[in-house]
Design a protein that fits this description.
Blueprint lengths: L2 H32 L4 H36 L2
Helix pairs in contact: 1-2
């Protein structure tokens, strides 16, 4: 893999991490909004938000694996 390709992948990882962080902040705000909903609405929405948080955690872990793989490629 060339240096340019590694840089491109690294750039994509950085952008993805930024998007994940933005999504986490937005979900956090949504959770605070949910707190004022009536109980019957709260349950369904809370499950959706919880699932979204889990997906974000999974993506963050996958990104960490990709970064580790890129680091290994740079090692002699």
């Amino acid at each position: 893999m060339s240096g340019g390709e590694k840089n491109a992948i690294t750039g994509r990882i950085v952008r993805a991490k930024t998007e994940v962080e933005t999504a986490e902040r937005e979900l956090e705000a949504a959770l605070h909004t949910i707190e004022v909903l009536p109980r019957e609405q709260k349950r369904g929405v809370s499950e959706l938000v919880t699932d979204a948080f889990q997906k974000l955690r999974d993506v963050r872990e996958q990104l960490a694996v990709l970064e580790a793989e890129l680091t290994k490629l740079d090692e002699p």
